[in-house]
Design goal:
8 helices
Length: 233
Amino acid sequence: MQNIDGLTPLTVALVLLAGFIVGIAPSSFPLIAVATGLGASEGTNATGNARMRGLCLSAGFALGIVTVDAILGGLFGLAGFAVLRLLTSALAYVYGLLALILAVTALALWRVIHITIPMLRPSAGSASTLFGAYALGLPFGLSTCPACTPLLFPVVVAASSTADPILGAVLMGSFGLARGTPLVIAGTTAASLAQFRHTRSVMLWAERVGGVLLMAAAGYFAWQTALYAGWLA
């Protein structure tokens, strides 16, 4: 990937592979927990084709991440590593927002708080279903993790070295699409399983575990917020 200088099938395949590996890595479990929670709640509370609704919600969540990745790729291709310097200056705010979202989501999975967002629980034909999950995925597109760096950084380098915003957007968009695939699978599967009575206890247990993962991730991003804000210096 360090020698990428054009858009070829091999280039796209390498980026897709890197994205998928990041998508199934333990560092992505909090994102999978969010997608699973969206799909499980839809399958438990909705009538009709819950699998399609779970697919719609998880796909919308993943597309929000893909959108941010593609935009960043275009910016990397246009402005190179100046984008990284700009993002670094804003990471304290981004990570603070992520910590808050993850903590609230964890409390919702634990049933400590109850959140009613109409655009996440609409009728089957409502277009706001996809949009609501899509909006939820946008801030997660800026999330990073130490374990992702060995695979993400070469893609960023490739996008920056092309000096082509379109190519950069395609590379980073492909990376985001591949890492979002496990999220769609998790959300769709959760929506399907939640319909069966004998899996209800399993889904409740999975939600509790997902809440623990989300809260742990919230703690990590809170620490990152303090780090980038200079509070730990």
